[in-house]
What we know:
By secondary structure, chain A is of the alpha/beta class. Chain A has helices spanning 17-44, 59-66, 82-87, 92-99, 132-147, 164-176, 195-198, 205-209, 222-237, 268-273, 277-289, 293-316; strands spanning 74-78, 123-127, 152-157, 180-186, 189-190, 193-194, 214-218, 243-248. Chain A is globular.
Amino acid sequence: xxxxxxxxxxxxxxxxxxxxxxxxxxxxxxxxxxxxxxxxxxxxxxxxxxxxxxxxxxxxxxxxxxxxxxxxxxxxxxxxxxxxxxxxxxxxxxxxxxxxxxxxxxxxxxxxxxxxxxxxxxxxxxxxxxxxxxxxxxxxxxxxxxxxxxxxxxxxxxxxxxxxxxxxxxxxxxxxxxxxxxxxxxxxxxxxxxxxxxxxxxxxxxxxxxxxxxxxxxxxxxxxxxxxxxxxxxxxxxxxxxxxxxxxxxxxxxxxxxxxxxxxxxxxxxxxxxxxxxxxxxxxxxxxxxxxxxxxxxxxxxxxxxxxxxxxxxxxxxxxxxxxxxxxxxxx
Amino acid sequence: xxxxxxxxxxxxxxxxxxxxxxxxxxxxxxxxxxxxxxxxxxxxxxxxxxxxxxxxxxxxxxxxxxxxxxxxxxxxxxxxxxxxxxxxxxxxxxxxxxxxxxxxxxxxxxxxxxxxxxxxxxxxxxxxxxxxxxxxxxxxxxxxxxxxxxxxxxxxxxxxxxxxxxxxxxxxxxxxxxxxxxxxxxxxxxxxxxxxxxxxxxxxxxxxxxxxxxxxxxxxxxxxxxxxxxxxxxxxxxxxxxxxxxxxxxxxxxxxxxxxxxxxxxxxxxxxxxxxxxxxxxxxxxxxxxxxxxxxxxxxxxxxxxxxxxxxxxxxxxxxxxxxxxx
Lengths: 332, 327
């Protein structure tokens, strides 16, 4: 597959700027999708341990937000965080190695699927308990403001809006006018429970009550997410205080590996899959930018081949050796 | 004496000096800035260092601790105040699940230089939920240091050490000590993790911390009248415990009493007794604990005084134990 080794698919080099950029957004979403499918398959083979939470169906959120961030910005993700990490440029090989508990993982195999940290790529961490990302990003915003540069972003789900961190930190950030963007990825279910069954009023009304500018966007359209994120990040950067984005999205797989998804309404999954962010992106790239199907297919092939190599290397990577592990409780 | 330093002033001066020394240090909490703290421990810092570095927060312990963690991993060195230690359970996620684990989980990508100051301890008639010792709640958390000074000198030198430490430190200030006066520190910073012998003796080692150190010293004076020569060790740090210092003392006295202001079951005294027993059983003729009943702290003065392991209780415990003839 010599073609798959090229950095750009055939025909892509002749594309216009916006089309090139859109194709790159598509490529990142495909990377997240293929990565998550590989994690799922490896989980079923017993190579990914414990539990794991996949981002399949929600790719436009992380990719759209991640695209507008600069080198000084910082992000706190969730336990459903592989997409957040990849969108920030975390090395997919190091991330896959971490999933498999290997020594070459981004955290040396110490963290696993739910707790990935990669400060070099602006990822403060992924947080295993909901709301942790909100606290961390709020504090990061304090530090970024003290340094005079940067915006912090917190990703979290609809379920987190009923948690103490959400209410305490949004108020804290609002009174302090901190440069932080709160991104609520509303995938309609808090674990197994429809959000409307356990959430009073409208989620968007909550930040609005605190005077935080709030926008609800189509979370299946990477351009819509990107546009809202660009505006929110820009306002935060200008010193206008915290911003809030709600992305309406849907996960195509269970909450975690043990979830068969029996709570879904009949036909709901199929309906959302018609708005798969990859299909939406393909349609817009073809319709608005004239990108040919074979160019898009070539991206799929290229990323698929990349993931095959990543999985192969991850499976061959060494486990940490307990006898040689040199863990230190405290930084000296 | 002109050089007498009040405990609360020691706290304030340590913060003031570290804020001046390192621009990455910030300090925030409830009522700490403009009001100067509910225990009057932090007046003037807001005015001296400005609202960006010393500020009042909402009454939101989750947010305070969570934000302090996020700020610490992004380059600041936050000091936060959780007003009463009884409120620490609200701050525990940020402290236990995030700050204390980050250095290890991140494969040492970054430390978490964070100090959580909190007022703890009984004897002030504050009742069951404004008087507790939180030490056992955090004793089993790897990555967390726990410091509890007993003197103004240590309050200043240990707080400065905590702020300069790259790891999360729970810094506990006993409420009954805020008005205590004493000599200023002789050194700029003290060593976290080092206990100190505050009274030398030959017959029995009493190991304790915080306000209980003063109760142990008073008890030692009374027991000296009985002809019992008590050595008192101020542990100063509860995690990690300075086990070698206690073993070195026990090697001379052969008896160990650990006094803990907190419930007997699951307390840090049990951990210290276990460590000394495991590592120096041959040195021990006797070892026991004096702590509180496994009950909430009562409000009424008569009940609270009887509940706590004060000087009289320590004297009675030692006399009873020695009279029982365990040797």
